[in-house]
Amino acid sequence: MNAAATPPASVAAGPVLDEAARKRALNGLLVYTFFMVAGFAMLMPLVAVHYVDGVGMAAAAVGLALAVRQLLQQGLALLGGMLSDRYGARRMICLGVLLRAAGFASLAFAADLPLLLLAMALSALGGAMFEAPYQASIAALTDAQSRPRYYAISNWVSGVATTLGPLLGVALLRFDFRIVCLAAAACFALNFVIALRLLPKFEMPPQPPPLRHGLGLVRANRAFAALVGWLMLYWFLAVQINISFPLLAQKLAGSVDGVGAMFALSAGITVALQYGLVRWLERRLSAAQVLVLGVALMALSTGAIAFAGSYAGLLACVAGYALGAVMTRPTQQTLIAGLADARALGTFLGVSSLSLAVGGGLGNIAGGWLMDVAAATQRPWLPWAVFCAVGLSSALGLHLAPRGRAAPS
User: Fold this and answer.
1) CATH code at position 101
2) What is the pTM of this model?
3) How far is Cα 169 from Cα 177, in angstroms, rounded to an integer?
4) Is 4 within a domain?
């Protein structure tokens, strides 16, 4: 670790809540997390399968549509975060989940590429409005001591939702893809009620700072900028679970059931190991070290897919990938929240979404394109070699990046 960033001289106080209200809000966020992840997981992994094999679109075209959602959502998350700092997290969360519900419902009637792009754009706008405020709410309601444990629990809840979501999606797909879309939309409509009833309405300052204030704080934080930059390569690798992995799983398994089983395995590992493994590693390694090891394991497991000639071999690689993801998810969240300045949590967490916007967007485009190229050139190893190289570059960059002290909460 090279230079150390200086934490802000002063930070705004967190929301003034008694302990019971704080716990109620954090528990409400766990319920919200379950339906947010379940709604996404029951639909999004099936988009590539439905539009490539069901509608007949090219994998590259579907990858483009997925990239549009990724780029718009994470690219505009900065705006959602800045608006959250000015108008309040709960308002932006409520607006965002309603837009996401409308986007997923409209996907049920998207039969060609222009309509698919439009539905993805609407879904992305919703995600952009709620993602940074949601993350900022967690950061505001926790402190440096409780945050790692809460992220571990939250990611365990996400694992349960990720297990059940694809299984429910595959089951509903037997009836109609439209039913999958409407069920996913209903999860986000329910989250509107959850956010409205369970999340606190934080008091906003009488004279909110200008929107550009938070950007100035971000620019001064070198360690935060380095972390966000190297996480772009991590997200390039991580989004392959939603495009390249499902396409290969269906090809090797011979049916869409193979996609559901693959996601069930990945999520099952998360449910079984997320909390205990992360807590065990935290007692022996720093969060940054756990993150680097996790990214490296994800990269090597993805590269090993080049040598997996069967569905069983793919599942073995997915298991290694999932184990790495268990290590990376809560640690990168903890590091980002710890380096964020409490005077502009929404802006900082919105900026952090740019890593997913750029890396995830390029990953979706490259994933679909490389799968097409691999099929056309008879080089099945090509995509997995590229994904592995990108992931290992991310691990190296994260290892060498400057690490500042966590900002006070």
Assistant:
1) 1.20.1250.20
2) 0.71
3) 9
4) no
Stated as kind and residue range, the H or E segment containing 215 is: helix 212-219
Residue 201 scores a pLDDT above 80: no
Is 5 inside any structural domain?
no
**Assigned token pair, 267:** 């999520």
Mean pLDDT of the chain: 83
Q: What is the pLDDT of residue 13?
A: 39
Tell me the CA end-to-end span of the chain in Å, nearest whole number: 23
The residue range of the domain holding 269 is 19-201+214-400
CA dihedral 203, 208, 212, 216 (to 10 degrees): -70
Chain-centroid distance of CA 91 in Å reads 21
Q: Is residue 406 part of a domain?
A: no
Dihedral, 159, 52, 239, 118 alpha carbons, nearest 10: -100
- Structural domains of the chain, count: 1
Tens-digit pLDDT profile for residues 343-382: 677 778 777 778 877 888 788 888 888 988 988 888 989 9
In a domain, 11, yes or no: no
**Cα separation, 288 vs 266, whole angstroms:** 23
Q: What is residue 21's DSSP assignment?
A: H
Reported as a single tens digit per residue, the pLDDT across 381-398 is 999 999 999 999 999 999
d(CA 98, CA 190): 9
| Strand spans (E) along 271-372 | none
Half-sphere exposure in the Cβ direction for 271 (13 Å, CA):
14
Q: Which of 2-6, 249-253, 258-262, 277-281 has the lowest mean pLDDT?
A: 2-6
Instruction: For residue 408, name the pLDDT band (cuts at 50, 70, 90).
Output: very low
Q: What is the residue-wise DSSP string for 65-132? A: HHHHHHHHHHHHHHHHHHHHHHH-HHHHHHHHHHHHHHHHHHHTT--SHHHHHHHHHHHHHHHHHHHH
The CA distance from 78 to 100, in Å, is 17
Compute how many other C-beta atoms are within 10 angstroms of the C-beta atom of residue 380: 16
Output the 3-class SS for 360-375: HHHHHHHHHHHHHHHH
SS3 sequence of 167-188? HHHHHHHCCCHHHHHHHHHHHH
